Amino acid sequence: MLLRLTNIRKSFGLSGSRSYREVLRGISFELDSGKSLAILGPSGSGKSTLLNIIGALDIPDEGQIAFGGEAIERFSEKQLASFRNREIGFVFQSHHLLPQCNVIENVLVPTLANNAKKLRAEVKHNALDLIRTVGLWEHRFDFPGTLSGGECQRVAAIRALINRPRLLLADEPTGALDHEHATSIINLLLKLKDEFGTSLIVVTHSRDIASRMDQMYNLTGGELQRLSK
Prior knowledge:
Rossmann fold; alpha/beta; 4-stranded antiparallel beta sheet; 10 strands; 7 helices
């Protein structure tokens, strides 16, 4: 087992005030290594909040998160930063590529924290292999402004994998794409998951996309319900 969430709760605003909102109400689930999971739900249901908590970008009010047997809610800020960089890859609806950097440079951004020359050479080799794998070799020196939306998302996907994370989190990765490019991105994420043995959690509005994952859940009213395919 790679990931276990137990009774995760999260609210926003002051308790008792009009602005108070309980977003997550006792969320629990498990995910094995190399497996995939989809989270469906309406806008504002807390899907992104849950993904941010899993990825250590936010902390729950209550509950436990175990990753590879470690309780990450007990990590210090320094440990959390290292955990995010080492173990988690993020793909968002907006690719967030740096416009002043070409494809190779964008893919290498998550590796910049490591200054070892030998490792830098190794990750650049890995980046070039990934760029070739996703069919962007001829665009490796191009800048994001010259690429299509689908091509930018492919760059974002391999950027998320450059540090060989054990878990890939994708928050509406196809939301800004048409059906053809959306299908292509999901095919790519599943292919890369299998190739690298990475676990995958996808937040999506699409039941078709969700049904391609090993597990499928719906988040509504702050509660997570397992769905059958």
